[in-house]
Design brief:
The protein is α/β, with parallel strands linked by helices. The chain has helices spanning 2-23, 80-91, 113-125, 141-150, 155-164, 177-186, 222-231, 291-313, 324-327, 329-335, 339-344, and strands at residues 33-44, 47-55, 70-77, 94-95, 102-106, 133-137, 190-199, 202-212, 215-220, 237-241, 247-264, 269-286, 346-357. A hairpin with a 2-residue loop joins strand 1 and strand 2. It holds the Pfam family Spore_GerAC_N.
């Protein structure tokens, strides 16, 4: 990790020198630019409220610099574009978003019309990198901005480190600005956007917002999100607690599924059974749990969480509808794009096969 950071820092230094050289003959001087590492966006009473957590010029090449080298600057406007332009005019600088690591929307922003307008603006302006991380926040903008005084590194860099150090899920599990733009255009998959809350002067992920078919489906907790990642093939490893004395770690996780169309001749009602088969290797951390006990525990956990999520959020954590056209054309022909009706008639059948390593 240290070598990776050194190479990255060296690359940023070279890039900054190149930008300084190119701007010396015209255009915007480097000292007249602001480099936000994190952007906080809120929507209140028809107005955008934006806070840019920008890096001082002397620290541009060192994105892991101490958080105290950050400045927090606020702006407001009726649209995101207007707010962005107003900030540059009032502060006599140009915002350079190419270094931005994270965009943090305040709670409720996804449900507002401002969300889609923001994405339209970003797509047309092409100012942010597509791999910019996306979060929601339950804490106020002021609380989030103050984290730069308590964290050892800037907030944007801290969130980037959280993803780099994640041990359980794959990189594709993290929601980026590019993923949001793709989903806005295609509305074909499920995204779980992490929700941040400030606790003891630290940003903590306390839940996830479900974005399915580009519609907000409410919140899911960390344990439910874990099952989503498992079924999506995005889990590298997973801790499974059977009880206080027994814990195992799963890895080598694979998930396969088939769909069965059933018709009740008495009611003439169609139901779809999604038969899910999960395979994994297990290593005991504590206790002496048998393979049968591990399999039953995980089967029950998956079925309960998936069923509860449909009842509570009208959301399918297995993200099954996007697979129908390829794997179950007869089901797809019956329901087409009527995802709501499909979910109402969906039932789960889960089987888990575990090989316990000695």
């Amino acid at each position: 990790m240290r070598n990776k950071q050194s190479v990255k820092a060296a690359g940023m230094i070279c890039l900054s020198v190149l930008v300084l050289f190119l701007n010396g003959c015209g255009g915007t001087e480097l000292e007249n630019k602001a480099f936000p590492l994190a952007v906080l966006i809120d929507w209140q009473e028809g107005q955008h409220k934006i806070c840019y957590l920008a890096q001082q010029l002397s620290e541009v090449a060192n994105e892991r610099a101490d958080g105290g080298n950050m400045t927090a600057a606020n702006a407001s406007g009726s649209t995101y574009y207007e707010t962005h332009q107003s900030f540059e005019k009032n502060n006599r600088c140009q915002l350079d978003m190419t270094h931005t690591k994270a965009i943090i929307f305040h709670r409720g922003f996804l449900e507002s019309s401002a969300f889609r307008t923001f994405l339209d603006t970003v797509r047309s302006e092409n100012t942010y990198a597509r791999n910019t991380l996306v979060y929601l926040s339950d804490s106020s903008m002021e609380e989030m901005a103050k984290l730069n005084d308590s964290l050892e590194v800037p907030l944007g860099s801290y969130l980037e480190q959280m993803t780099e150090n994640e041990q359980e899920v794959n990189e594709q599990a993290f929601v980026t600005l590019g993923a949001l733009l793709n989903e806005q255009a295609n509305a074909s998959r499920t995204l779980l956007i992490p929700v941040l809350e400030v606790k003891r002067d630290m940003p903590v992920i306390n839940s996830y917002e479900i974005l399915q078919k580009f519609e907000s489906k409410g919140r899911t907790d960390v344990k439910e999100a874990q099952i989503y990642y498992l079924l999506a093939g995005q889990m590298k490893q997973m801790d499974l607690f059977l009880d206080k004395e027994e814990q195992v770690k799963l890895h080598g996780i694979t998930c396969k599924r088939v769909f069965l169309l059933n018709q009740d001749k008495t009611t003439n009602k169609n139901t779809v059974t999604e038969r899910i088969t999960v395979s994994a290797e297990a290593r005991r951390i504590t206790g002496k749990a048998s393979a049968d006990r591990i399999e039953r525990t995980l089967e029950n956990k998956i079925e309960e969480i998936c069923r509860t999520c449909i009842e509570k959020n009208d959301a399918d954590l297995t993200d099954s509808s996007r697979r129908l056209a390829l794997y179950a054309p007869e089901v797809y022909q019956m329901y087409g794009k009527r995802a709501d009706e499909y979910r109402k008639n969906l039932v789960y059948e889960v089987r888990v096969h575990v090989r316990v390593l000695s």
